[in-house]
Amino acid sequence: MTPAADSRWARIVRGDLRGPSDRLAAAGLHALSLAYAGALALHHAGYRVGLARRTRVPARVIGIGNLTVGGTGKTTATISVARWLADRGQKVAVLSRGYRGQAERGGVLVSSGSGPLVAAEMAGDEPYLLAEALPGVAVLAGRDRRATARRAVEELAADTLVLDDALQYQRLCKDLDIVLVDALAPFGYDFLVPRGLLREPPRHLERADAVWITHADLVRESDLQATRERVGRMAPRARLWEARHAAARLVRLDTAEEETDPEGIRGRRIVALSSVGNPSAFERTLEGLGAVLLGRARFPDHHLYQSGDLREILNGEGAAAEWVVTTRKDAVRLPLEELDRPTWVLEVALSPAKGNVPLAEELTCLLKANERT
Predict the structure, then answer these.
(1) 260: phi then psi, degrees, rounded to nearest 5
(2) Phi, psi of 356 (to 5 degrees)
(3) 89 exposed, middle or buried (CB, 10 Å; 0-12, 13-18, 19+)?
(4) Domains (ranges, CATH) in the chain?
(5) CA 145 to chain centre
(6) Is pLDDT of 5 > 80?
(7) Neighbours of 16 (CB within 10 A)
(8) Contact 59, 152 (CB under 8 A)
């Protein structure tokens, strides 16, 4: 789980310690991080010595994951990769854990390629979003991705599996590991969770076949160069590509049919509403489009919205807002009856950062290199 951006936990993670109680809390979190590191080391050792085994299925398996909790843009990358593969004639299925979905434990077919078959509460917000965004691509949710992989191959004849949130998932053999690093917080403040945001030590980037630095347009060149150099030291064999999340369109949430160019937000007074891993990237994108942010409604990642969650900000600092603007992931969980003004969804697409080749060219080179190894 990602901390709410304005929570005490988030402050401590960033190193913003305000007095003895914060220092004591940081020490306690550090102790928990050490315990987590020990458990992680045992987990990886089990695979190294053969006590734990990986399952191989008769399909190409492409993993998309990250080192840190939340905010790198995995869902956008998964959509982009799955769509590109499907356009090339592959029979693609996306496998997602379905975090917080009712079927997370038992697994469920979310889409056979024609849109969602179950509600977001059953599938989980990310699989439901994937099912909406990927016509022609099957989406399965479930914690045991060995089971959903077998189902995708045997029942749906999938020949290519895209494994969402995959770096930490070791139970399924992968042919290709793409790891996303967020330029805004690339190494999780250099502490494992819960003291920092790292799910694995940065040196584990050595397992990556490709590292994609996301939100590369939102940081200074000197910071980006430092990230490039550190990634290069830890993942010398990996292809490096840099990306930005480009605004694609705005869709009216309550009508679903009305849409406008992102430039339509210029000069609008808005409230930015999100429960994503990296709300600052979303908000900076809105500001870059020329929106006037009167309020920032931030909730923890995967937040289950309840009645009253939005009332305070819409009646307070956001009272003069013309629009509420949110993310596609939030849109599947929002109680529309709570929104008393036009609400728009900003849809984004993964695009190359300045000086990088288009995504299609990068994926073509990556797959060719993988086939030779």
Answers:
(1) -145, 160
(2) -105, 155
(3) exposed
(4) 8-48 (no CATH), 60-244+352-372 (3.40.50.300), 246-349 (3.40.50)
(5) 18
(6) no
(7) 10
(8) yes
CA distance 102 to 100: 6
> Residue 181 has which token pair?
């690093």
Pairing of strands 343-352, 323-327: parallel
Least Cα distance to 181 among 139, 145, 219 occurs for: 219
Q: Where do the DSSP E strands lie in the chain?
A: 60-66, 92-96, 108-111, 138-141, 160-164, 176-182, 210-214, 239-252, 259-260, 269-274, 292-298, 323-327, 343-352
Measured CA angle at 131 (ends 126, 136), to 5 deg? 145
Torsion of CA 328, 354, 227, 231, to 10 degrees: 90
Cβ neighbors of 17 (< 8 A, separation 6 or more) are 11, 23, 26
**pLDDT tens digits, 238-294:** 999 999 999 999 999 877 668 889 999 999 999 999 998 889 899 999 999 999 999
pLDDT on residue 240: 98
User: What was the pLDDT predicted at 313?
Assistant: 79
Q: How many CA atoms lie within 13 A of 364 on its CB side?
A: 7
Vertex 112, ends 110 and 116: CA angle to 5°? Answer: 40
| pLDDT on residue 47 | 93
**Burial tier of 180 (Cβ tally within 10 Å: 0-12, 13-18, 19+):** buried
Positive/negative CA dihedral, 48, 56, 209, 247:
negative
Q: Sort strands 323-327 and 210-214 into parallel, antiparallel or unpaired.
A: unpaired
Beta strands in 85-126 (DSSP E): 92-96, 108-111
